[in-house]
Amino acid sequence: xxxxxxxxxxxxxxxxxxxxxxxxxxxxxxxxxxxxxxxxxxxxxxxxxxxxxxxxxxxxxxxxxxxxxxxxxxxxxxxxxxxxxxxxxxxxxxxxxxxxxxxxxxxxxxxxxxxxxxxxxxxxxxxxxxxxxxxxxxxxxxxxxxxxxxxxxxxxxxxxxxxxxxxxxxxxxxxxxxxxxxxxxxxxxxxxxxxxxxxxxxxxxxxxxxxxxxxxxxxxxxxxxxxxxxxxxxxxxxxxxxxxxxxxxxxxxxxxxxxxxxxxxxxxxxxxxxxxxxxxxxxxxxxxxxxxxxxxxxxxxxxxxxxxxxxxxxxxxxxxx
Length: 321
Known about the structure:
mainly alpha, elongated
C-alpha cells in the first residue's frame, strides 16, 4: 500500500497516464530508486482491476437479466436484492481503483483511494450480514435473531461513520498542511486494517453463536425426514459464511501485519528495508493483491448463478417458508 511518489521524478515524464509515467521515470532515473519491477507490478494490478470490473459487471447484468425473466419485466426493485447491491458496490470499487491506476492525480488520488477502501468496508459488512442472515432465517428463535441482526447493523453503521470521519480528517490534513498522509510513516493503513479486523471479529462472534444454535436444531431434528432439506440448507448457509469470513480475516490480518511492519521498521523515505528493490516491489505487490483483489474470488464464486446454487437457494427459501 506504499506509494512511490516521493521519489524524484523526470520533469518530462507523461503527466496523464500512470504506467507510462512510471516506465519513463525508470529510464531517466539517475538515483536508481525507480525500478522496472515496480512498474510491471502496477501494470499487472491495472490489468487485474480491468478483468475484475468486467467479470463483476457481467455478473451484475446476469443477475438483473435473471430477475427480469423471473418477474417478467424490469423494475428498480432489483436493487433491493442484496446480491445486486453488493455487486454494484464491487463494480464501483474496482472501477475507481482502475481509474486511479490509469490516470495521474494529486489530491483526487487520495480521495479515490479512501472512497474505494470505504466501499470495501461496506462490501465486506453487507456480504457477511447477507450470508449470516441466510443462516439466521432458519433459526427457530426469532427474538434472538432480531437482537443479533440489530448488533450487526449498529456495528456496521458505527464503523462506517468512523471511517468517513477519519477519511475527511486525512483529506483536510493533506489539503491544509500539504503533507503526504499516506507515507510509510502514516498509521492510516494500520487503522484501516484494524477496523476491518474489528468488524470481521464481530461477525465471527455472531457466526459462532448462529452455528451453535443451528447445530443444536439439526441435532434435535436429524431423525425427522421432513427436516432433511432444511438441515442441509442450514449447513450450506453457514458453510458460505465461514468460507467468506476466513478469507476476509486472512486478507485483513495480512494487511494489518504488513502495514504495522512498514510503520515500525521502515526508515525515513521508506527505503530502509535490507533487501533488493525488486524483492520489496514483489512484497508490496503481494500485499496489495491479497487485501484489495484476492477477496473478490470467493465473492464471484458464491454469486455465480449455477444450477446447484439455484437449487440450494430454492430449497432454502422453501425451508424458510
